[in-house]
Amino acid sequence: MSAQRFKCIVQYDGTGYVGYQVQPNGNSVQTEIEKALKKMSNGQIIPIHASGRTDSGVHALGQVIHFDYPAAIKPDHLLRALNSLLPDDILITSVEFAPEEFHSRYHAMGKKYIYRVDLDRFPNPFKRLYTTHHPYRFNMANLELAIKKLEGEHDFTSFCSTKTDKTDLVRIVYEASVKKDEENNELVFTFRGNGFLYNMIRIFVGTLLQIADGLKKVEEIDRLLEVKDRRQAGPTAPSQGLYLVEVYYDEEKLRNG
């Protein structure tokens, strides 16, 4: 029997990993999943492919991976077997058969991320690995005005790390929004687009918080989109507040949320 391709949705707490992708300097989410698959297949190496990488400390609620499994197995059996072998900070939430031409990265139409900011006066010990602490007074109206300026098709050079390997820095952001979670005393940023550049969302957040704090004006977003200079934007917000929520393979759902 030829290998069967599977598509899986993965959740992980990125705290203990150098990122999703295999790295020489520490353990990765990819390494743990491939290690589990190797045990299941009697030592055979099964490469996995993801919709994209996430950095050290970044979390995922809906990362998508695919791989070709060399033996006949039902999706639910594969789901249970994998989860029994994975560490507690990684969970496969769904497994389904995929056509052999499906590719989790190349067929992805876009992604949705959230970023959580803890507004408590002092750092909450139970949130410190999952939010960024920002205990300052801020102007919500200015923040809401500024974030909407990021929507649409733009060259996002000012909001991309200079370490990027991409040459085309134009992306479409379909949703850029923020809400106050009163119950948890948090700001929750949401970004949905056809692609995001290296550190793009974290630079968005670092810049937007400066605007909210009154250090920059709302119109700064317009200027940054015009000047295309990373040095003039705000800092890169810490990684632990960032979550990959969903990967879209349907363009209509990507556009409309």
Overall geometry: globular
The H-and-E topology, N to C, reads as EHEEHEEEHEEEHHEH
The largest pleated sheet is described as: 10 strands, mixed
How many DSSP E strands? 10
CATH class of the largest domain: Alpha Beta
Classify the beta-strand content into a percent band: 25-35%
CATH architecture of the largest domain: 2-Layer Sandwich
Pairing-aware structural class of the strands and helices?
Answer: alpha+beta
The overall number of domains is 2
- Mean of pLDDT: 97
CATH superfamily annotation of the largest domain: Pseudouridine synthase I, catalytic domain, C-terminal subdomain
Tally the helices.
6
The low-pLDDT segments are none
Whole-angstrom Rg: 19 Å
User: In angstroms, what separates the terminal alpha carbons?
Assistant: 39 Å
Helical content band:
10-25%
What name does CATH use for the topology of the largest domain?
Alpha-Beta Plaits
Binding site for substrate: 113
Organism: Trichococcus patagoniensis
InterPro entries: PsdUridine_synth_cat_dom_sf, PsdUridine_synth_TruA, PsdUridine_synth_TruA_a/b_dom, PsdUridine_synth_TruA_C, TruA/RsuA/RluB/E/F_N
Subunit structure: Homodimer.
Could you explain how this protein is built, in words?
- By secondary structure, the protein is an alpha+beta fold.
- The protein folds into 2 domains: 4-97, Alpha-Beta Plaits, CATH 3.30.70.580; 110-251, Alpha-Beta Plaits, CATH 3.30.70.
- It is 23% helix and 28% strand.
- It contains 6 helices and 10 strands.
- It has helices at residues 29-40, 75-85, 140-148, 200-212, 220-227, 251-256, and strands spanning 4-12, 49-50, 59-69, 90-97, 110-118, 132-133, 152-155, 170-181, 186-193, 242-248.
- Strands 1, 2, 3, 4, 5, 6, 7, 8, 9 and 10 form a 10-stranded mixed sheet that branches.
- A hairpin with a 4-residue loop joins strand 8 (170-181) and strand 9.
- Helix 3 runs antiparallel to helix 4 (200-212).
